[in-house]
Queue: 2 jobs
Job 1
Amino acid sequence: MAEISAVIITLNEERNIKRCVESLQGIADEIVVLDSGSSDNTRAICQSLGVRFVELEWKGYAAQKNHANQLATKPYILSLDADEVVSAELATSIKNVKHELTGIYGFHRLTNYCGHWVKHSGWYPDTKWRLFPRDSAEWVGDFVHEELSFSGKPKKTLLQGDLLHYSYINTAEHRARADKYSALTAKKMFDQGKSASFMKPKLSAVGRWVKMYLFQGGFRDGWAGKRIAAISAASNVFKYQELRRLHRSESRKSEVKTIALSRTDSIGDVMLSLPMTGIIKREWPNTRILFIGRGYTEAVIRCCEHVDSFLDYDELKQLSSSERTLALKTEKIDAFIHVFPRSDIASWAKKAGIGIRVGTGRRIYNLWNCNYKTWFSRKKSTLHEAQLNALLLKKLDLPFQFSSSELAAFSGFNHLPVLPQKVEGLLEDGRKKIVLHPKSRGSAVEWSIDNYAILIGRLEKEGYQIFITGTEAERALIGTDFPWDNPSLHDLTGKLSLTELIGFIAHCDALVAASTGPLHIAAACRILAIGLYTPQRPMHPGRWSPIGSNVKVLTANHHPEKGGSLDISVDDVFALLKF
């Protein structure tokens, strides 16, 4: 009897992987999961199920699946995606042929769409050839569509039973993934020299809808067929719009040599603007980026590898009008993006003769100071702050639609300061190092000082080192009843500059805070960042949570009364710190 290795690639598949692995029991003699850096519970679930779990940085669909195949040790491979399940009937079919496997085997794939099994719309039977000899097949393809290539002309056998595909749990997820693939396809078409006329997006969408809903029987799938056809048509529009954008962006790239970004508010706001710089550099790597901010945020801006130079807003304000205009003209700025709108800066940019000036049209002074205007509302938006910032890039024909998790990869927060000598001797090997930043200078709804005190006692019993950070003024607000004399606690309030604080945070294991700048710094430094938030809009985590691969957020049940604190339990915070 031939043995079978089941191979699966994953990234944040905690919702699906258990169901997938359990369906392989009695079929696979070995289960190999190749993960590309999951930040959820995928690893823990896999290890509890006894599979072989291997991690590898993402190389692309085909390359990732080929590497997974190389990890297999059995003569036959059954290749699955994490959101697929072997049905009982298909499992029986595989068992029936397992004693004399020869050639390759396929089966139909049946997709579950938002709880509805789709049997038309061009989505079924969707035959997949996924059971094959380990040494006779290779995944080929680029970053969009991968497929198996078999050596020679192997015998093909179609098995009875469906491979069940649990694709989307809601239509928003469908649209997001469809647009992702459309963007990748547009990039492929662009690289091949293809273009699209003005009417192509609309005509293509109509054709796609007619084909799926009418000719392929989507109407027989009820509401699901209707939504599938509509989203596919809309995504087709996006594909050709994206192709047209890529051509415009290529033309504009030669015109824009220097871009200025202006963000003159607090540290957290600046941190959530940094992904814009990474997007610009990915698309236009030779473009120079100038960041205009407040002097006290310069330290975080200097940590961004994408920012080429910095101008201090407060210093610019001190100059005379002619000196300020000369200073801006000297920078040879081709495009100016007002991320945080200010009437004075808007007028400065216009007076300096900067050709492209991007800002929100919802500020009256931008109506005459900006010649490229956006019209979205931040106050009423459901998007994250980092996503709202990225929308401003649309006016430069740069990509602007990303999830908050995707934006984290663009932050470029890699030029980190060294660990300050003044705290180097405090860090003990073998002990977890937890930073608590209790105050927010009034920028966030806070957790109570009493809760922080209780948490410190719990952490001490676990053998953790605890560090309190903040300004000297914030130490006074914390008060004298705080357990400052705890032997595991180190008081760093008022003792570190922002540069030193960044270097220190980067060498710790976790940070707990409300919605403050240090919380966003911790997330960018890739340590565990635990954010404590109110559910009230627009202060809720959906708008202001830090972005990164190691972020955990706890949200209070209610927004507190004036002067109150977040009703988040110490147990919940402590549970996240037991890692």
Note: The longest strand covers residues 156-168.
Job 2
Amino acid sequence: MADHQQAKPLGDDPHSWANFKQARVTHYDIVLRVDFHRQIFHGHVDVTASVLADNTDHLWLDFKALAISSVTDLNDNNATLLWTVPQNQSLCACLSIPIAEKQRAKGSVVKVRIHYSTSPDSGAIQWLEPSQTSGKKHPFVYTQCEAILARSLLPCQDTPAVKAPYDIKVTVPSPLVAACSGTPTHNGPHIEEDGWLSYSYHQKNPIPAYLIAIVAGALVKAPVGPRSTVWCEKQLLQAAVHEFSEDTEKFIQAGEFLTGVKYEWGVYDMVVLPGAFPYGGMENPNLTFLSSSLLAGDRSLTNVVAHEITHSWAGNLVTNSSWKDFWLNEGFTVYIERMILGRVHNSEAYRHFESLCGYNDLIKTVSDFGEKGAWCTKLQPDINGIDPDEVFSKVPYEKGSLFLLYLETQIVGGQDAMLGWLRSYFPAFSNKALSTEEMKAHFLNHFTNVHKVDPAKLNSIDWNLWLTGTGLPAVFDPRTVLQKALGEKCQALATLWKEQEGKGAKSDDLAAFQSKQTMFFLDLLITQALPLKHEVIEHMDSLYHLSKSKNVEISFRYFIICLKSKYTKVYHAVGEFLSRHGRGLYVRPLYRALNEVDHAVAAKIYKDNRSFYHSVIRNMFDPILLH
């Protein structure tokens, strides 16, 4: 983590040049052709914007690693416009497009066409050679635009404050398939004169640019619910159908019940991506992107699907207006996700156990940041001039969810009261972007005037402590209110290994555990018992076979235990793991731990696998492991 340095914001959104308070984009119409040989997309985007203030003479868009070839005025017979780049900074450049004098009044509509191409350096796009796919025959490409990478896919107002519907046509070589974050507008592809295939999609709901998504490859699909289909390479299809067919619809229905808002996106489809995908899931509307690492075979990791489905309300329907307020997306999502899981499993104890695991994750995260990175543990960190991906962590997820659990249990009187608020919150801000200040005002108004709570209780909320305080909030330890039956068994086993070095442990200790309990047991060892003696690690693995687990979450935790205990015999297995899984949740901690033990080994493994990783991973570790 680099030293935290203050930086000047780019514009009204500190990460964007967009002048969205003067001219706001209201629609994108994207036409792109995929060139696997040159590793670029090329085509054009038609941008429609509304003028919000008189005398607005330019439309400002964000772009990065794009080659702009021309800009024309669709309101003036495609007349050429003399665009300029008045600002250029490491986060992005500003594309300034002049607005004709007759269109500068408030209420005018601007329509321009921008011809452009991406570049192999476009951070939003990851290209995979056939050898990096399951089928080994065809290339593969996908986009990942969150947080501020949409600007390297198309010129746009790349701020979550701006939400707009979009249409897209993507042309790919036969027999490949393209899918996007919308609903298909045709039954099957259009065959072009050169034999290439064009796929068209429409997104009817206004979304921020970071939710524009494209995937293309040798994709097949199968239904996994009444409104859900899973896409993937055919080699993964059977496993994907097994993993996701049982719970997906249950999760959607539970989300509708808990939020009080119907699922507004039509279909809920998923695509399972190759292992290089840097996240467990990405909530692209109508087409959630999922990591193939979730295919555990026992449905133990489908909580990620519950999380991404919850984003259909928290994040996609109601969106944080800036990345400083990312916790509004992720904290709300985790909080509701756990209620969904409790409802689907018909167990409040399950919800509480998930919350207990999350709090332990937060403890680990705060510890890993240390004093130097303590500023990253704020719910509202100062990230002006910093790519949000550089400070990505579990803090907005777990500390944000913890804050909502605190409000539920300590302030408003329980889950039913919180649900009453949420069922007014989502309709109030539907299809909008909001700030923490707006969320706070809505919360206080609801519990002052609708569901009246003792004013002394509301006044006792230390908003500054929760939002700008570092570390764990001293006012609330959730372990005092959570049911701990499922966790106590994990703690007892962890204590046996910590205090007795596993004496009396049996090979069937984990047999009665759910996979999540095994993960929690290992987490407790990480937070309470490290380093372990090497003979203790070997004894544990001989009993539990952790190094051979097919569940990536279990093997990842085992490797962390080994590395933090300087158990060098695990290097080869860690290298194999890092060659197959590019998810940041695993890659970041493993490389950090490996680098602390043996920089040379970490650097070699990273160099061998660098081309496999997404740009958000490369940007983080290139400065550390390539020099």
Note: The domain at 318-480 is CATH 1.10.390.10 (Neutral Protease; domain 2).
